[in-house]
């Protein structure tokens, strides 16, 4: 009989059957039963439960912000969306062909946009506000850089002028109105 190579494990052979009735297969089964049972593969039930609990906790933390009561303060809503939510737009609004989003508008801009109920114009018809298919369409000259540079600084000034005419944003007429109101308050 050849000797096994030193790197090969030695194989224990089953004892020869004692009587003629025992088959070779039964002898192999008996030899396998005498071997030590294999170590369990994988996780035990307790380990699996611990892993699943940790996974569930990590998922909840990832889906929930760290600060649940964050005030959601932004440049568009300095008072915070949680305590002072901005109103919703009454209809879709487009300025120079671009849709205006509520989260990119201030409270004053949203309130002004919601005041439009009919078509109006300003600056000799160059600025227009129309309601078409339930959407507010605001158009101003904006084709060239010079056109865009001539626009007032801020959407609310454009909206006020469209709603109230040029006197609504004219500094002299505003100062005159303030003086009239102050006189009424002093007389009261």
Could you characterize the architecture of this molecule?
With 188 residues, the chain is an alpha+beta fold. The chain has a domain at 93-187. The chain has helices at residues 24-34, 45-63, 107-114, 145-149, 155-164, 171-187; strands spanning 93-95, 98-99, 120-122, 127-132, 135-139. The chain has a 5-stranded mixed β-sheet, with helices on one face. The longest helix is centred in the N-terminal third of the chain and has 19 residues, at 45-63. The chain starts with 23 loop residues before the first helix and ends with a helix. The relative contact order is 0.06. The mean pLDDT is 82.
Question: Could you say which structural class the secondary elements and strand pairing correspond to?
Answer: alpha+beta
Our measurement of the CA-to-CA distance between the termini, rounded to an integer number of angstroms, reads: 126 Å
Shape: elongated
* Average of per-residue pLDDT values: 82
What share of residues are in beta strands?
5-15%
Number of strands: 5
